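Our consortium's second objective concerns turning raw sequence data into structural hypotheses that experimental partners can test. To show how far this objective has progressed, the report includes one record in full. It was chosen at random from the queue rather than selected for favorable results. The single chain below, 160 residues long, was entered without modification.
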Amino acid sequence: MTEISDLIKSLQDSKLNAKCRHCGTSSSLSKYTMFDGTKDFSDDIQKIVDQYETSLQEKHDTLDKQILRTDTGAEQKAIDVGFGNTMEKIIHLHKDFGIPLDDCRFLAEPLDVIVFNGSSKNKVDHITFMEIKTGAARLNAHQKMIRDAVNDHNVVVEKL
C-alpha cells in the first residue's frame, strides 16, 4: 500500500467523526467514501465525478444564457431609455405635435411638459400635465403620485 492509501485506511478505521458543512450532521469517517485523488478513480467515484461535472456544465450553460439575455436586454433597455429621454425633450417642438408651442412649458422632471391649453390665444381653458413615454415605458412611482393627486382634485394654485 502507498502512504496515501494507508492514511485513508487509518482514517476509515478510526473512531473519528466528520461534520457536514452543509447540514451540520456529524458522521463516522467510516461512512464516507475516501479515495486517492492521484490515482485513477474507481467506477463508483468516477460516476459521482461525472454527475458533478454534468451538473456544473448545466449550471454553466444556464448562466451563459442568463448573461446573454441580460446583456441583450440591458443594451436594448439603454437604447430605449436614451431614445425616450431625447424624445421627451424635443417632441413638443415637432411640427406635428398638435399643441401650440406657446402653450407648452418643458419641465423634464417629474413630468415632461405642462400644457396651458389656450394660452397662445389668451384663453386657458384647461391645464394638461403631460408625461411622454415611448415603447412599453410606464409612469414611475413619483409620476403616479402626481397623477393620483390630480385625479383626486388635490391641486392648489398659490400666489406668493
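The partners drew two points from this record. The helical segments are 3-13, 43-90, 141-151. The longest strand covers residues 113-117. Both points have been shared with the crystallography group to help prioritize constructs.
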